[in-house]
Design a protein that fits this description.
Mean pLDDT: 74
Structural class: mainly alpha
Strand content: under 5%
Number of strands: 0
Shape: globular
Radius of gyration: 22 Å
Order of helices and strands: HHHHHHHHHHHHHH
Number of helices: 14
Length: 332
């Protein structure tokens, strides 16, 4: 326990560095992102990351570790950090280069790459935070563990939001490419059509396989989940059909947890395949936690694209008749 306590400060510093890098990453991408939901997401997350940096700085000041032991373990932590920090450093290169080489807004392809890099950097920051949170738990530092838990959950929520942005931006890239080919074919007689169609097909397949939160957690994480934590009571006593009947009622984070647990235990193909079908971005962040009345109010001034996403998502999940009827009225 004493060793865990001494390791906590360098671990917190690494989490702090990761959050500061995320804030810089999002701010850099804002410079070339057009107005819309994705830009609003980046603006909000810049503020969240900076808030985490401030809270972590306060916690570091409060801990005041023993100097000698902390220095030794801090050096060891630095060695580990240099071995694993490449994703964040690499992710920070592209925005700076982009801003130096290009004025105005980024192309659809550049925006897609930005989202991909933001997803990777966020996943890396979540992993660092998860490790530090476990160290805090081992050190029995409840305040620090609670803080790190809040930072981690915020990062996991960001991953869900970015997964939706990935799919939307991949679709935008395909549409832009197809529009460009239409013009090119009119001028050149169609020589580029097949190559772009092949590339577009690959891009669509990539979007369809976009990773959910459960894929980020993976089987080792699922092995740490206990049955009591699962959103389906008495899970191990239920048959496959009973579990399949309950899955559409679960939120995305709960589906991810069940998927991780199932892969590390029974690994039933029917359950895993059904979870894979249900996993996907919510129509908007926080949708799963809203009641039917609040969703209907949001639909009242929703655009066609958002309404279509609600219809698709709701039909695959809870299929609440009041929400479907409201969305169909707006979509009609």
């Amino acid at each position: 326990m004493a060793v865990a306590t001494d390791m906590l400060v360098p671990a917190l510093r690494e989490v702090r560095e990761a959050q500061a890098a995320l804030a810089d990453r999002f701010k850099a991408d804002l410079a070339v992102t057009p107005p819309g939901e994705y830009r609003e997401l980046l603006e909000r997350r810049v503020g969240d990351a900076r808030g985490h940096v401030y809270a972590l700085d306060e916690r570091l000041t409060a801990l005041k570790p023993r100097r000698l032991v902390q220095d030794v373990l801090g050096n060891a932590w630095d060695i580990t950090r240099h071995a694993v920090r490449l994703p964040l450093d690499a992710a920070m290169v592209a925005p700076g280069a982009l801003l130096r080489s290009q004025q105005g807004r980024a192309t659809e392809q550049r925006l897609l790459r930005n989202v991909e890099e933001e997803y990777a950097a966020t996943a890396f920051a979540v992993a660092i935070c998860r490790a530090a949170e476990r160290i805090a738990q081992e050190a029995e530092d409840v305040s620090t563990a609670d803080l790190l838990g809040a930072v981690r959950r915020d990062g996991e929520e960001m991953l869900e939001e970015l997964a939706g942005c990935l799919e939307e931006q991949a679709e935008a890239v395909v549409m832009a490419a197809e529009a460009e080919v239409t013009v090119t074919d009119a001028l050149s007689g169609g020589g580029a059509t097949q190559a772009v169609r092949d590339w577009s097909a690959w891009l669509r397949e990539t979007a369809e396989r976009m990773p959910g939160v459960d894929r980020l957690q993976g089987a080792p994480e699922g092995a740490l989940i206990t049955e009591d934590e699962l959103p389906i009571p008495e899970y191990r006593r239920l048959g496959t059909k009973m579990i399949l009947d309950r899955l559409p009622q679960l939120a995305q984070t709960d589906l991810a947890m069940v998927g991780a647990y199932e892969r590390s235990h029974a690994a039933r193909p029917a359950v895993l395949n059904r979870i894979a079908d249900l996993l996907g971005p919510e129509p908007w962040p926080g949708y799963d936690s809203m009641n039917a009345g609040d969703i209907r109010k949001r639909l009242a001034d929703a655009g066609e694209g958002l309404t279509r996403r609600v219809l698709d998502y709701e039909r695959r999940h809870q299929a609440r008749s009041t929400i479907l009827a409201a969305a169909e009225r707006v979509h009609a």
